Amino acid sequence: MQPTHPMSVTLYHWEPNANSGKPMLALAEKGVPYESRYLDLLQFDQHKPAYLAVNPDGTIPAMVHGSRVLTESTPMMEYIDDAFPGPALKPRDPVARWRMRWWMRFFDSYFAPSLSMIGWSIFVGPAARQRPAEELAAAIDRIPLESRRVAWRKALFNQFTPEELAESRRRVLFATLALEKHLSGSTWIAGDTYSLGDINGFNLGYALPLSIPEQCNDIKTPYIMEWLRRIYERPAARETWAKGRTQLSSRIKLLERNPGA
Ligand SMILES: N[C@@H](CCC(=O)N[C@@H](CS)C(=O)NCC(=O)O)C(=O)O
Q: Is 98 helix (H, G, I), strand (E, B) or coil?
């Protein structure tokens, strides 16, 4: 498809998952065509010179719109909503907008770091750990941000402490219960309208029923389950998750109402 906007959009991303999935789904909801540049996080593509020339922090996602480079997935989603035509992804009502941003702050600063620590300890670390130790040490040395170097070192060398992991699990459970309570009285994160808050929460939580099956399921969290399924049924979500290449994003199939149908 030819770009229909005056300035073309290129998105550097990994799987439709967590931070990468946020602008992917927001662009799809707005109907904005974009050039997709897939970076394999497990191959450390995000620390290679070609990408550091785009985002010197070596983190994904990054979006290039014309000559402008945008980073940070949540403000990037706000930019996408403001800069392009298409359906509004922010409610007009100030209270609903505040609520959307309240939840995005909670997702980004509390829920996501805890869930991410668990994901890095059980998926990213073991998946990337297959290579020789010297190669991994050299890969870590090339990471520009100190905070990401620490995360990688812990994941690759299995250094998350039992206390850290227990605290993350406690936070994930607390946040899941808070979300269930909220959705029991609200169709969408911001109220009556689908918004960036839903896009943010979906990217974070679409696989919760697999990550914490005892606590997130049709009996214990029926409102979360229904909310996840409603988002997955949106054409933009189908289109976005079809871009996934690994088992990470294919976990989304657990949201099919009629598996195998
Ligand atoms: N706050 C940033 C976080 C970006 C970030 O850390 N992304 C992760 C992937 S979800 C990443 O790039 N990890 C690669 C690495 O640490 O090497 C955002 O929301 O965009």
A: helix
If you measure from the C-alpha of residue 3 to the centroid of ligand 1, how many angstroms do you get, rounded to a whole number? Answer: 27
Domain boundaries, the chain: 94-235
Site residues for ligand 1, CB cut-off 6 Å: 18-20, 41, 46, 58-61, 72-74, 143, 148
Look at the domain 94-235 and name its fold: Glutathione S-transferase Yfyf (Class Pi); Chain A, domain 2 (1.20.1050)
Q: What is the pLDDT of residue 179?
A: 98
Q: Read off the pTM.
A: 0.95
Mean pLDDT (the chain, rounded): 94
Question: Which of 17, 19, 105, 140 has the most ligand 1 atoms within 8 A of CB, as the residue to mutate?
Answer: 19
- pLDDT(65) > 70: yes
3-state secondary structure 196-239: HHHHHHHHHHCCHHHHCCCCCCCCCCHHHHHHHHHHHCCHHHHH
